[in-house]
Amino acid sequence: MTIKPIISEQFNATIWRMEIDELTDTIVLELRNNEDRKVAFGSMGLQSGKLFFKDLSIPERWLTGMEAAYNGVLLLHYYESETGPVHKGLLAIDAFTGETLWSNYNYAFDHLSAAGPVVFDTRIQPRKLFLAAIKTGTTNGIYNPSVNKELTISIVVPAMMTPEELPQDLVTEPRSGNMVHYLEYNNLRIVSLHALHGGRLIQSIFVFDGISKVYEDLLNTDIQKVQPEAFILHKNRLIYIKNKVELKVLSL
Predict the structure, then answer these.
(1) DSSP secondary-structure letter at 124?
(2) 125 located within any domain
(3) Taking Cα atoms as reference points, which of 50, 58, 56 lies closest to residue 27?
(4) Is 148 a domain residue?
(5) More confident residue, 79 or 198
């Protein structure tokens, strides 16, 4: 048995952040090019492997970023200023078409509930939280945490262990660093570790069925420091980023 990626998509900018829409199994990406000071966004179906868009830009070329993805909508924010991290304003994009659905420059995002985004009006003090309709941006009354439950996230992160704790039957190459990522799923064992090759520190990912290697990939080469968060599992999809610019997804 061998495993092949269902998604192997390379981008022209660094994958800065990714979010997963729990309701539609859509993964959305924030792509940042520091040299050109440009931000763009990508969207793909995790189950179908379909690319919806990969270089979507908006009129604000730099001072914007992702807040969340929910029910087929990508929610973006603006920055209050170029020198500070404070978010202000919201813009909703259809995660399948890239079409702008609505915008509100007075709202700011607080968190995502099971019923949709929770927002507040930056002009009102003290802060009051409202539940917003993701498709239209209209508010549906005051947010009530006892009624509006938190959204359940299906993401599983690997365990972190030392190289010595990793089962010795899995990988034979020399290990380096103090961080190994390990996860077991569906009778498979997934490992990511660092190793020295020719004096260079590299990071690899392996998938084993028992002791048989069914998948291998090189995540990063010539690393200056040990990299965290090698991969995640969402439902039955193994997701990782290669060389900061390529998204790969495996079906396990």
Answers:
(1) S
(2) yes
(3) 50
(4) no
(5) 79
9-41 pLDDT, tens digit per residue, is 999 999 999 999 999 999 999 999 999 999 999
Contact 130, 145 (CB under 8 A): no
pLDDT in tens, 202-248: 888 999 998 899 999 998 876 666 556 689 999 999 999 999 999 99
In a domain, 252, yes or no: no
My answer on whether 117 and 214 are in the same domain is no
94 shares a domain with 49: yes
Amino acid (1-letter code) at residue 131: L
Give 88-92's long-range contacts (Cβ < 8 A, gap of 24+).
Answer: 88/122, 90/119, 90/137, 91/58, 91/64, 92/134, 92/135, 92/137
What CA dihedral angle connects 18, 5, 8 and 189, to 10 degrees? 50
The tally of domains found in the chain comes to: 2
What's the domain range around 60? 5-142
| Any domain includes 242 | no
Q: Are 137 and 176 found together in one domain?
A: no
Q: Are residues 135 and 15 in the same domain?
A: yes
Which residues touch 3 (CB under 8 Å, ≥6 apart)? 207, 214, 215, 250, 251, 252
- At 42, list the tokens: 């990508």
Q: Are 72 and 24 in contact (CB under 8 A)?
A: yes
Question: What is the phi/psi pair of residue 36, to 5°?
Answer: -90, -5
Alpha-carbon distance of 210 to 153, in angstroms, equals 28
Task: State the Cα–Cα distance between residues 156 and 183, nearest whole angstrom.
Answer: 9
Residue 160 β-bridge partners: 181
Cα angle for residues 174, 180, 183 (degrees, 5° grid): 120
